[in-house]
Amino acid sequence: MSDEPQRPTTDDSAAWGTYWTAQVRPWLPGTSASRAAKGTALFIGALVLVGYVPLTLLQVGASAARGGHLPWPALQWAVTTPLGALLLIALCVLVLGPPGVLFNLWQLKRQVAQAIDITGMPPAAWPGPWPTRPQRPPIQRWLGHGRREQALSLALLVLGTLFAVALAVAFFASFILWSRGFGDVRVQCDTTGTGCPPDFPVMWIVLASLFAVVALSWVARFRWLHRAEATRHVWLRYRDWSWPSPLYYVRPPGVTPEAAAVALARFSSALAMPLARLVGIYALAGTPFVLLVSASFVLGAWLQFQWIPG
User: Fold this and answer.
1) Per-residue pLDDT tens digits for 227-237
2) Domain range holding 272?
3) 248 forms bridges with which residues in the sheet?
4) Does the pLDDT of residue 284 top 60, yes or no?
5) Are 60 and 80 in contact (CB under 8 A)?
6) Strand partners for 85
7) Contact criterion met (CB below 8 Å) for 285 and 166
8) In a domain? residue 6
9) Crossing angle for the helix pair 275-306 and 82-113, nearest 10 degrees?
10) pLDDT over threshold 50, residue 183
């Protein structure tokens, strides 16, 4: 019997999705985009589980071993016990996860909308990393069409730039505060070397959360790519594992160039946005991350200032 998957005889979308997915062959050139996303998700997830989380818990244990306490038992429990640290990590992931995943998928849709058909081409003939594409006039690419749309894009560009500058100032101010202490006063140890406040693992908790969100974003990326290949009837490929790299696609047998182009054109709305508005989008997407890191700097300095020896 042949191993060739049988074409469905009904209009069931799930059956057709299974059929197109099963058509993938290991001889396809390049690297599968969905498998690359899956591998990246597994790597970063392993880094979180065997790296950042254990190191965070070790830092928590070191903080608890110093003795002393904070004036608030709940806060003391959260930053000096493993369960409290894991709870804080989970809360940070809940805050950062949705915007991180949505922004990652939005960027992915922009890549898919620009995917290049390389069906039948040998890898040596694939377009380069930065293929030449027809470009609109600069004013339209940056601000859009029409005076109203251009005025709105210009306003969003100014607001996005100011917002990004404000976030950068807040980040560096919090870092300086963390490194110098409140009121430009460092917490000093006594002459016997005891009474030193612990280095509370606030920053480690945030780092573990950030990498966990990155891993979840790549999981969502893998699932979205796998579903897109099944529903759009194309095989999405990268030239290799390097980044940045344009996204390519191969058409399965029986799929015409016109049909593939129409299927992928549904994501073209992600490309219609003027570049000026992207400044605001990137600033908004980075806001939760910058604010959380800045807050971790401030909280770490404040906790040392509030620590009571004994």
Assistant:
1) 988 888 888 98
2) 29-129+139-187+196-306
3) 116, 237
4) yes
5) yes
6) none
7) no
8) no
9) 170
10) no
Neighbours of 236 (CB within 10 A): 25
Distance separating alpha carbons of residues 236 and 33, to the nearest angstrom: 6
Tokens describing residue 139:
């004013």
Structure tokens at 210: 């950030």
- In this predicted model, which residue has the larger pLDDT, 51 or 277? 51
Distance, CA of 113 to CA of 28 (rounded, Å): 21
Please check whether residue 63 is in contact with residue 198, taking contact to mean a CB–CB distance below 8 angstroms. yes
DSSP string, the chain: ---SPPPPSS--HHHHHHHHHHT--TTSSSEEHHHHHHHHHHHHHHHIIIIIHHHHHHHHHHHHHT--B-S-HHHHHHHHSHHHHHHHHHHHHHHHHHHHHHHHHHHHHHHHHT-EE-TT--GGGS--SS-------HHHHHH-SSHHHHHHHHHHHHHHHHHHHHHHHHHHHHHHHHHH-GGG-PPPPPTTS--PPP--THHHHHHHHHHHHHHHHHHHHHHHHHHHHHHHT-EEEESSS-SS---EEEPPTT--HHHHHHHHGGGGGGT-S-HHHHHHHHHHHHHHHHHHHHHHHHHHHHHHHH-B--
| Predicted model pTM | 0.79
Residues 6+ apart with CB under 8 A from 58: none
- Within-domain flag for 71: yes
First to last CA, the chain: 78
- Could you give the CA distance from residue 148 to residue 14 in angstroms, rounded to a whole number? 44
The pairing of beta strand 248-250 with beta strand 116-117: parallel
Percent of the chain past pLDDT 90, that is, above it, reads 19
Number of domains in the chain: 1
Dump pLDDT digits (tens) for 143-156.
777 788 778 888 88
Does 74 reside within a domain?
yes
Q: Is residue 20 part of a domain?
A: no
